Amino acid sequence: xxxxxxxxxxxxxxxxxxxxxxxxxxxxxxLMRLLVFAFFIWTSAGPLSAQITAARLALEPVPIxxxxxxxxxxxxxxxxxxxxxxxxxxxVEPRRDxxxxxxxxxxxxxxxxxxxxxxxxxxxxxxxxxxxAYSGGGGALPPELASCVSCEADFKSDRPFASxxxxxxxxxEVELRAVNRGYPVTIGVAGANGLDTGAYRLEVEIVxxx
Length: 210
Prior knowledge:
By secondary structure, the protein is of the alpha+beta class. It is 16% helix and 31% strand. The chain contains four helices and nine strands. A five-stranded mixed beta sheet has the order 1-3-8-5-6, with no helix packed on it. The chain starts with a helix and ends with a strand.
């Protein structure tokens, strides 16, 4: 088509000369312009979201398994709405700021007839780091968690609870239970108020209920 337009150049009105260069443009120039345009769109969109993954915790047959890690190894959570969905009920929406920082995820299992106690101890007591864990879920990770068997969360409170448990300190603790069957477990460590760094110790204790 371009070749035909060029051959007709002498037979068409002079005003066509103004647009003829665009009709006769070579393919290399078109490709270059497309590449520049695509690069502009890619850079304007910003960096891609980090993929949500989980580290595997291999539990040894000891009273307490301990793991050292840092919140900076986590990733931003694209959405927190899964947490207050009725099928999960990990924490309520007004507490979303307690989980607004980076999230570091882990997976393991809870055996039948047992209680799993998960503790989080920050290296720096001034770091506000929250903790959550759920059983079941079919191996799904947030924010793609549609439902789970049980989900528990712990975060710093501004006032003491009637139970007498210290939720105003830096350490966090949650418990999960299994009866006649075991479940996959996902543990989440999250920075509060946008926190994106902070070393901590994660402890996992399994108590048999047989």
